[in-house]
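Known limitations

Files may contain more than one protein. Parsers should not assume a single record per file. Below, a two-record file is shown to illustrate correct handling: read the sequence, read the C-alpha cell line, then continue until end of file.
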Amino acid sequence: MPDWAVVGDKRRAHIERVVSLLDRWAVALAVDVETRSAWCDAGWWHDSLRDADELQLRALTGDSERPVGLLHGPAAALRLEAVGETRQDVLEAIRWHTVGSSTWTRTGRALYMADFLEPGRTFMQADRAFLADRVPDAFDAVFRQVVRLRLEWTIREGKSLSPETVALWNDVR
C-alpha cells in the first residue's frame, strides 16, 4: 500500500481478496506479465483512500458535488498520478471502479468484477462465487452480468445513477 493510504484492517482484508481474485483470473486467462501486474496493482490501490475522511477526499478531488462514497477512486487515481503512475488503464480502473466506465480496457473491467465478486462480501454468496469462477471462461458475459446486478442494486436502493454508469450499461447491454 502507498504510504499515503488510509486503510483500516477490514478494508485491507477486502483489498487482499480483490487482488487474489484478479491474480487468479490473470493466471487462468494466461495474460501477459504487464497485464497481470496492472490488474494486481489496480486491485492493491483501488481502495487506498476508502477510509479517508470527506474533507480530505473533497480537497484531493476538488469535487463538492458527488456523494462522498464515490470520491475515493478519483482521489486515489490523482494521488497515484502525482507520484508518477502513468499506466492509464490502471488509473482509469481505479478512478471509476465504484461507478463504471464505458471506456475501460480489461483492467477496469476486471477490477470492477473483482471488487463486486470478492468472497468476503455477505450478499448473494453462491451466485457471486459462481460468477467469479466463470470469469476465465466468459469474461465479457460475466462483466455484463456484474454491471446489471450493480445497476439493479443501485435502482432498488433508490440511489441516483451516475452518467458513467448509464454509459457503461448502454455499452454492454
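...continuing to the second record:
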Amino acid sequence: MKIRVAAAEDARILALLNPHVHVIHAAHRPDVYRVDPPEEELTDYFATLLVKDVTRAFIAEIDRPVGYAVAAIVRREENPFLQAESFIVLHQLAVDPKAARGGVASQLIEAVRNAGRLEGCRRLLTDVLDFNEGAKAFYAAAGFAELKHVLEQPL
C-alpha cells in the first residue's frame, strides 16, 4: 500500500471515494446530509478544499485509489478561556469497502498524525456521529478518546 499527498488534480478521486462514507451519513440523517450528491459538485468541492493552505489530504493506493483522509491545521490564539494551540482536525476519512480491514484507514490516520506533528500540532481531533458504531470502534482502537458530546434538539 502507498499513502501519498493528495493534490488539486486528485479532486475527482476523492469525489469517487466519498460515497463510501457519505452514504452512511445520508442513510441515517437525510435531514442533514444530501442523498447522492452529484460527482461534479463533489469534485469542485474537493478541488477548492485541496488548494487551501491549511488542508492536509492523503490518498491510499493499492493498485488503485482505495481511500483518503482530509484534515486541516488549526492555529488558535490564546483568549481569556483557552491556551494558544495548534492542532490538526480530521474532517473526512473514507475507505473502499473492498479494501476495508486491511490497514488503509490506520495508515491514513498515521499520515494525518505525521502532518500534524510536522506543523507543531499537539493534538489530532475528529468527530464521529453517534449512529456510526463502526467508526466509533475504529477510532477507539486507533487510540482516540472521547473529548466532548455535542447535543442536538429539533426546533
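Parsers that stop after the first record will miss the second one. For reference, the second record is described as follows. The helical segments are 11-17, 19-28, 39-50, 104-118, 133-141.
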